[in-house]
Predict the structure of Large-conductance mechanosensitive channel.
Amino acid sequence: MSIFQELKAFMMRGNVVDMAVGVIIGGAFGQIVTSFVNDVVMPPIGVLLNGVNFTDLKFVIKEASIDAAGKELPAVSLNYGNFIQMVINFVIISTVIFFAIKGMNKLQNKKAEEPAPPAAPSNEEVLLTEIRDLLRNQSK
C-alpha cells in the first residue's frame, strides 16, 4: 500500500472527520463565548469598577524612553489586567461548556433509561416450555 493510499484511508476514517468537525465547531463556539464575555459580561463589570477596563491594567517596570541614537524604546510592563481578563474568560467558557455537556449527558441518559424490549426466549427455553406444557397435559 502506497503512502498516499494510507493517507487517504487515514483521512477518510470517521473519527478524523468527526474531530475536524469538532475543531471547526469549537472555534466558532469560542468566538461566540469571547463575544459574550467581551460585549455582555465585561461592560457591566467595568461600570461596577468605575469604568476600569481590565486589559488596560498594568504595572510599568520601565517607562518608555529614547536611546542615544534617537530610537524609541517601548515601556516594559506586567500586563496583569489582560491576565485577569483571560481568567474571567476561562471561568465563563468552562461554565458554559460544563452546562452544555451536562445537558447533553442528561439527554443521553434519558435515551439509555428507556427500557429495552424483553429478549425473545432462547430455543432451549422454548423447548423446555413445550415439554412442561406436554407434561401438564398428560397429567390431566
The chain has two domains: 1-52, 55-140. The chain is about 70% helix and 10% strand. Residues 38 and 125 are 66 Å apart (CA to CA).
